[in-house]
Backbone:
């Protein structure tokens, strides 16, 4: 490509990235406004299915921006591989917009299913090939609350990895979730974890998600952030689970929870109550409700088929990462983009410059791969 073509491509990907930031969604927008009330109704009745209410997403100008980007893409003088990737990415942004707009409507199940494109055989393959893990017995455990966990996180981010621009906050509203953003980690105020589980969370949230996001920020080329929504979650959550298992920090409870989440996603054609009743065979009421809520969030009428299948990404992603590592491919690509295929594509087109990326300490010990 000529320098002029590269500059136009750069400008185009900046616009794509800005739109991505408007459309990407996670825990907050999927959190029902009436969760506590519906939870109380659910436990008051053996047949009730929650009816959730959500905040509305403002989609002004999104359609116009997407149309303009499609038209501009046709004018770019770029290799076929890049054009094909960007064309598919714009389709994913369009589907992401439709899914976000459909939160709380009867259309949500349809768009969420298209967004993730999960097949039953993939779920069954992941369940059939679960890793056998010997879980250690932990003694003299200390129970930490959300504020204490936040301080431990800060020490790890700042003192171990020198990520001084990462903030850790206790979320007073979203009480039961932990969420890693581009420069912050939020911990629900009701969360309590024993010391061995805090070590697992450090691997999952900091040494996987936070380091991925930090490394992304090092690259001037916004192309590295243009990852389809499914792959964004597949490689992100898959890497976190892979790291938990590889470091031996995964707990039996966490591993079983990943398995039950995957099984719950497989049951999304069932009602909230039916999924909950299935899970109660394995876990207590509180955990069964939480897993069911996670896969049914986004739905208004949870008695209907459908939901939010993101929770399948943990074990489906783990299998994807495991296959990637076994193939002898470059592991640092997993920390440059949330899709190593994109990293490879950009490298082949001389669009991936070198950067002083940060890998978790246990990767540096166990791997001796050249880093870009």
Residues:
């Amino acid at each position: 490509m000529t320098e002029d073509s590269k500059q136009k491509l750069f400008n185009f990907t900046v616009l794509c990235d800005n739109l991505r930031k408007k459309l990407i969604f996670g825990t907050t927008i999927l959190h029902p406004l009436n969760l506590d009330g519906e939870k109380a109704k659910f436990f008051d009745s053996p047949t009730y299915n929650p009816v959730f209410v959500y905040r509305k997403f403002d989609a002004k100008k999104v359609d116009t921006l997407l149309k303009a980007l499609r038209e501009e893409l046709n004018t770019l003088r770029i290799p076929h591989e890049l054009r094909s990737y960007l064309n598919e990415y714009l389709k994913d942004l369009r589907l992401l917009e439709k899914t976000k707009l459909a939160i709380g409507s009867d259309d949500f199940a349809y768009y969420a299913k298209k967004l993730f494109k999960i097949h039953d055989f993939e779920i069954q393959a992941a369940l059939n090939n679960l890793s056998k893990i010997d879980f250690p017995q932990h003694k003299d455990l200390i129970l930490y609350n959300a504020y204490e966990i936040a301080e431990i996180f800060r020490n790890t981010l700042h003192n171990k990895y020198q990520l001084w621009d990462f903030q850790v906050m206790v979320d007073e509203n979203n009480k039961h979730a932990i969420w890693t953003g581009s420069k912050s980690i939020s911990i629900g105020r009701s969360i309590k974890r024993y010391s061995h589980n805090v070590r697992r969370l450090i691997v999952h949230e900091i040494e996987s998600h936070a380091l991925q996001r930090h490394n992304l920020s090092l690259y001037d080329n916004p192309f590295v952030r243009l990852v389809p929504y499914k792959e964004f979650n597949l490689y992100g959550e898959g890497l976190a689970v892979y790291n938990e298992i590889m470091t031996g920090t995964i707990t039996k409870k966490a591993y079983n929870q990943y398995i039950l989440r995957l099984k719950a996603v497989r049951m999304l054609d069932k009602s909230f109550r039916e999924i909950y009743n299935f899970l109660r065979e394995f876990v207590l009421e509180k955990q069964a409700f939480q897993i069911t809520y996670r896969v049914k969030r986004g739905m208004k009428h949870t008695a209907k088929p459908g939901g939010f299948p993101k929770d399948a990404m943990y074990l489906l992603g783990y299998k994807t990462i495991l296959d990637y590592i076994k193939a002898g491919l470059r592991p640092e690509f997993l920390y440059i983009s949330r899709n190593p295929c994109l990293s490879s594509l950009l490298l082949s087109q001389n669009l991936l410059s070198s950067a002083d990326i940060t890998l978790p300490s246990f990767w540096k010990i166990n791997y001796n791969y050249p880093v870009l």
Observations:
- The CA atoms of residues 232 and 338 lie 5 Å apart.
